[in-house]
Amino acid sequence: MAKVSIIIPIYNVEPFLNECLQSVANQTYGDFEAILVDDGSTDGCQAICNEWCERDHRFIYFYKENGGLGSARNYGIKKANGEWITFLDSDDWLDLFYLEKMISKISDNVDAVYCDTVIRMDNGVSKISNVRSIFNFINAGIEDRVALGINASVCAALYKKSSWEKIGIEFPHIIYEDTAVYGVLVYYFCSYAVVEMPLYNYRKRVGSIMHLHGLKYKEMIIALQYLLYLAKDRNIFEKYKREYLELCRSQLSPRWRMAREFDAGNIQREMIDFYRKNFSIDDTSKKIASIGSHIAAKVYDGLVLFPDYQNDVYSFTSIISIMSKPIKNNLLLDYVGNNTYRIEMIKKDLGKLWKCNTQKYDYIIVDLLDERNDIITYKDSMLLYSEAIETQCKIKDNVEILDRDSREGKAVWEEAVDDFYGNIKKTNTEIILIELYLVEQYGSFKNRKSYNNLNEIRRINHRLASYYNYIKNKYNVISVKIDPQYCYTDETYKFGCFPWYYNDVAIYILRKKIREIVWSKL
What we know:
Layout: E1 4-10, H1 14-25, E2 32-38, H2 45-55, E3 59-63, H3 69-79, E4 84-87, E5 93-94, H4 98-103, E6 112-121, E7 126-129, H5 131-137, H6 142-147, E8 157-160, H7 161-167, H8 179-188, E9 192-204, H9 209-212, H10 217-233, H11 241-279, E10 288-292, H12 294-301, H13 309-312, E11 313-315, H14 319-322, E12 333-335, H15 340-351, H16 353-356, E13 363-367, E14 375-378, E15 381-384, H17 387-392, E16 393-395, E17 400-402, H18 407-424, E18 430-434, E19 441-443, E20 448-450, H19 454-474, E21 478-480, E22 489-490, H20 504-518
Parallel strand pairs: 1-2, 1-4, 2-3, 6-9, 10-11, 10-13, 13-18, 18-21, 19-22
Antiparallel strand pairs: 4-8, 5-9, 6-7, 6-8, 12-16, 14-15, 14-17, 19-20
């Protein structure tokens, strides 16, 4: 009997199948069987499978009528003889050392082993998804692993087959069958190990089951409803209700953004019905805005059911800027960049739309990280000299720069803060102040280097600390801090390695802290 059964559901993937199976045959750990489950393919997959079975006795081919990916996975589990099982989608492929590294983590008290994933785009761009490594970084319990269900794939994992059979969960015959069971599986596979390496290559392609249906929010709602049914049926829903809400939000929110331009009204109604039915809430229960750096915007994005960046997010801005007078942008700036998000934020900052927006908010998330930047003064108005302006605009000559460290700079900032909080005090809005500073290190969680300009970073952070203390000593705010061990820049971040960018672990922890405040009554 083989140590590991690799279950490979196959359906009309002829152009990719050889690469997938070759990655299995090349494994440095050889004690495995490859269960090839042909789910009724109509292309040349059967011939490819037969060729591999003739070439390598470890490959075993099964043909069945088409029933969907969930059906094929269930079939493969029943045919598997290994002590451990792992799933490989037939358009993906394994790293050469996948099995060797995963098997090395097995011990008597482990019933699942996870690894990270490399997302391979059609255009050649790749991105590492390190959600599984986050398990180790934060010593994730069941709560965290449910909440991190955005990576709700059963792939990139090794499962003890006896434990899987004891749980007695089968994949439903629907799209997003992984999502429909993952949030319950993690409850049972609670003794786990993690290989902190990206050993699974996930092909993100046009035409795949996942991305052909990228806008099919209804199918995702069906999958999530199935998941919540399982959780309720097994009496675990109420204990992890907040985490299941976060899992659902993480899956539905991106689809809301993708699909709303086609049928926004119906989509939102159906999603609100889903949230009301399962969690007794809708998006009108908490109204949230964010002001400050892009980090605050990313935290906001993990809190609301229907993100509205146009009205509720003010990034690349400062309190000085939003409280000054509007500026006609054509008098001050020429746009030379093509980042539409950053340009939109610049235009909002120029128009001082925050002051024009009279919507009432329950919470406003504020951070002062972008207060590190100087201020552009133009006639009787002010504008943050933000990273967005620096990268997307050419500033005209008729401006002056206000030195942040000058006496005048400090006085202007304090006056703007008093004006801002004076307006807030007239409402019942609560301010959540995220105390963010420039980080001193970059790299990865376990391997970091210090930036070369530490003296400059610390000088700016000293100023930011005085800003945070001014607000906390004078106004009633909810202060949120993050453990310094999580404060570093991920050197692989696509926008560059700068001390004002944080990593995914830090963002997750900040969201978790603030969710406990905003969702406290759930």
